[in-house]
Design a protein that fits this description.
The complex is a heterodimer of chains A (209) and B (206). Chain A has 209 residues and is mostly helical. Chain A folds into 2 domains: 39 residues, no CATH class; 160 residues, Butyryl-CoA Dehydrogenase, subunit A, domain 3. Chain A is built from 7 helices and 5 strands, in the order ββαββααααβαα. In chain A, the strands form 2 sheets. A 3-stranded antiparallel beta sheet of chain A has the order 4-3-5. In chain A, helix 1 runs antiparallel to helix 3, helix 2 crosses helix 3 and helix 3 packs across helix 7. The longest helix of chain A has 31 residues. Chain A starts with 12 loop residues before the first strand and ends in a 7-residue tail after the last helix. Chain B is α+β, with helices and mostly antiparallel strands. Chain B folds into 2 domains: 42 residues, no CATH class; 158 residues, no CATH class. Chain B has a 3-stranded antiparallel beta sheet with strand order 6-5-7. In chain B, strands 1-2 form a two-stranded antiparallel sheet. In chain B, helix 2 runs antiparallel to helix 3 and helix 3 packs across helix 4. Chain B is elongated and about 70 Å long. The chains are: A mainly alpha (209), B alpha+beta (206). At the A-B interface, strand 2, helix 3, helix 4, helix 5 and strand 5 of A face strand 1, strand 5, strand 6, helix 2 and helix 3 of B.
């Protein structure tokens, strides 16, 4: 592998993943915080792809299985999937809430998986590294917000212990959903954006900074 | 110090661009010229400011755990829900793993962050570090991304609206303490630039 002459790796220098100290990679461990040193995150692409596949697989049970079941003496039983929750809020005229859940629970997870695929492709082509780096930062930041529905379920289950009048049970969808969010977060974490810049140096023709 | 050369370098975390460490005056921000990643922010007295904010956050967090978070009223009956309730409720309904995840993201991680920061920052006020300061600082780097208290707060608002038609939910003292806790913790995290904290720890005496 050849590195950009301006990069730390070209001079055999590694930036510590943990404390940011720049040290010769032969040192093995960071002299400040003792974290292992690597020029690039180890097996970055393989790990990212594997975790993303897992997340994409969980996306289906997360959206098809009910996330919670409400039994109320007034309204009977209802199974709630994420989408049916969105639809109910929309029909009741709670448009902002419907949009928050739709964005956080349905759209962001799809966009995240697509973004990670785009990033992995960029590692091959080295195309527009600047824009891709920005996409990476956005993907890393936004992932956690998809947990909002899982927390809402957790709170509803915790608050309702009224037995006869109202009962709320969690559904398998909530579990699949939480697993999916954790997997996409791990995928974003194991991705190394510096690989895009390395590829950009190898294919200068396609790279547009 | 083993290799004195490398101290004068700074590398971009996102594009690996190498810089000879700039003489940044206090109050300045250094940004990567190639990919515009944030490299470091030098703030005057960030250790004492962050310590004050973390102490306040710890008090808010304690209050948030001691009072009811929400109260549900339906059919002349009332029940209180404490912050831990969102975890124990799931466990009782047969979802222990999900309960563990929720507990990790909104109770265990913030507790760890508060404890670790106090352990690191208080001795650092006098330019000292303790035995576990460095390993804890490293663990904190990882813990930060799994801290989802602000997402939990949004989830609380969503659940409030979900039950609107079936029962009456009122917010308790703990809810407002939790808001205060999030504000203090978030501003402390913004004030602390990780690389600056590491540099201070490196200079600190055992």
């Amino acid at each position: 592998m050849t590195f950009d002459p301006a990069s730390a790796a070209a001079g055999g220098l590694a930036r510590c993943h943990s404390c940011g100290r720049v040290e010769t990679v032969e040192a093995g461990r960071c002299p400040v915080c003792e974290a292992p040193l690597h020029l690039r995150k180890p097996a970055s692409l393989e790990r990212t792809v594997a975790l993303t596949l897992g997340a994409a697989f969980l996306y289906f049970p997360a959206n098809l299985l009910p996330v919670l079941r409400i039994e109320s003496s007034l309204k009977g039983e209802q199974d709630n999937t994420i989408l049916s929750g969105v639809i109910r809020f929309w029909e009741d005229g709670d448009y902002p809430v419907a949009l928050i859940i739709l964005t956080a629970s349905v759209i962001i997870p799809i966009l995240k998986v697509l973004a990670i695929i785009a990033l992995c492709v960029a590692v091959r082509s080295g195309r527009s590294p600047r824009a891709m780096t920005r996409l990476y930062r956005l993907t890393e930041y936004i992932g956690r917000w998809s947990m909002v529905d899982v927390f809402a379920v957790a709170i509803l289950v915790g608050v309702v212990q009224l037995g006869s009048v109202l009962q709320i049970d969690p559904g398998g969808g909530a579990f699949a959903f939480a697993g999916m969010v954790v997997l996409t977060m791990l995928a974003a974490r194991s991705f190394d954006p510096r690989l895009i810049w390395d590829a950009a140096v190898q294919n200068p023709a396609t790279a547009v900074r | 110090m083993g290799n004195t050369n490398s101290i004068h370098y700074l590398a971009c975390p996102d594009c690996d661009c190498l810089y000879s460490a700039p003489e940044a005056p206090e109050g300045s921000r250094v940004v990567c010229s190639r990919c515009s990643a944030h490299l470091l922010t030098r703030r005057a007295n960030f250790v004492s400011h962050a310590t004050a904010l973390i102490a306040a956050a710890a008090i808010f967090f304690l209050l948030a755990n001691l009072f009811p978070f929400m109260t549900l009223k339906a059919d002349y009956r009332e029940s209180d829900m404490w912050l831990v309730g969102s975890m124990t409720g799931l466990a009782e309904q047969g979802f222990p793993v999900l309960a563990g995840m929720v507990g990790m993201f909104m109770l265990a991680t913030p507790t760890f962050l508060l404890g670790a920061m106090l352990y690191i920052l208080i001795p650092l006020l006098r330019g000292r570090r303790r035995r576990w300061s460095l390993p804890l600082c490293r663990a904190m780097d990882e813990a930060r991304r799994w801290n989802m208290v602000e997402v939990y707060l949004l989830g609380a608002l969503v659940s409030l609206l979900k039950l609107e038609k079936l029962a009456t939910l009122t917010l308790g003292v703990s809810f407002w303490a939790f808001v205060g806790f999030i504000l203090c913790l978030a501003s402390a995290v913004t004030i602390i630039d990780p690389s600056e904290l590491w540099r201070k720890l490196e200079e600190a005496q055992r």
